[in-house]
Each structure stands twice: as C-alpha cells, then as structure tokens.
Write a structure and sequence with these properties.
Shape: globular
Number of strands: 0
Helix content: over 70%
Number of domains: 1
Structural class: mainly alpha
Largest sheet: none
Distance between the termini: 54 Å
Length: about 150
C-alpha cells in the first residue's frame, strides 16, 4: 500500500514549484510549452546538438529539472499520488508527450538507452499516467497545429 502524502511531501512540491518560477526557468518552460514541437528525432537533435544556443540551454534546463523530480518520485522521496496531480505534473506530461513518438530513435541517435527513462517510468507506470499521456499527446498535436496555422496566417 502506498504511503500517504506527508507534510514534507507538500513542502517539497511547493519548493519545486518555487524553482519553476525562477525567471530563466520560466523562459525555458515557455519555450518548451509554446514553441518547441519536434516533428522528428532530427528536430530534437538540432537543438540538442547546438551548444551555446538559448534553445539548447532551455532544452537541458527543463528536461533536467523534470528528470530530477521524476527521480524523487521513483526513489520514494516524493509521494507519487501527490506528484501526479495535474496541477503540478501537467507540464511533465506535455514535455514527454512531445518527445514520446521519437524517444526510441533519440536513444539510438544519442547512444543513450537511459535518455528520458526516468520521466518515462513516472509517466507510464500507472494506468492513470498512461491515460494522461494519451490525452496529452492529442492535446500537444492540437497545440502544434494551432501554432502552425498561426504562422501560416502571418
């Protein structure tokens, strides 16, 4: 039986939320959420292989943050049920939904079988998480289409 969330879990969630409010992290999160829609593993690799660019820094900052948080969940430092509340983990699902179609190819291209594995485990290990991922993949596609339509109209 999973442990019930504790006051310490709640404090950690609030501290993690506070880290997300840092100015550069907000920019990175906005880029991931609203501008970065990789259509292939190569789209992701263009950013990943562009050290020194702002987008590369944002890619690493946000993915690193969520990998750390996911490791807290997997290692029992943070209550999984509390973490999976959409108000906190929704962004994680959006990010993973964006790379999910390409993750196997990215692992090969990066020669890293563990690439995004921690996040993947947290997202997919419960039925609720798998259902949420499916929902977010549809939502991400709608977001991508709206962005493309907006660019075409400009």
């Amino acid at each position: 039986m999973p442990k019930k969330p504790t006051f310490a879990d709640a404090q950690l969630i609030l501290q993690l939320y506070d880290l997300r409010r840092e100015a550069e992290m907000r920019k990175a999160r906005n880029w991931w959420a609203g501008e970065f829609f990789p259509q292939s593993a190569d789209d992701f690799m263009k950013v990943a292989r562009a050290p020194g660019t702002q987008e590369n820094a944002w890619l690493r900052q946000v993915s690193g943050y969520w990998n750390i948080v996911a490791s807290f969940v997997l290692n029992g430092v943070l209550n999984e049920d509390l973490f999976l509340q959409p108000g906190f983990s929704g962004e994680l699902f959006v990010i993973y939904a964006k790379i999910h179609p390409h993750v196997k190819e990215l692992r090969k291209k990066l020669d890293d079988p563990e690439f995004f594995r921690t996040i993947e485990q947290v997202v997919t290990r419960t039925k609720w998480g798998r259902n949420r991922l499916e929902f977010m993949m549809k939502r991400v596609e709608m977001m991508r289409q709206r962005l493309a339509e907006g660019k075409a109209a400009s």
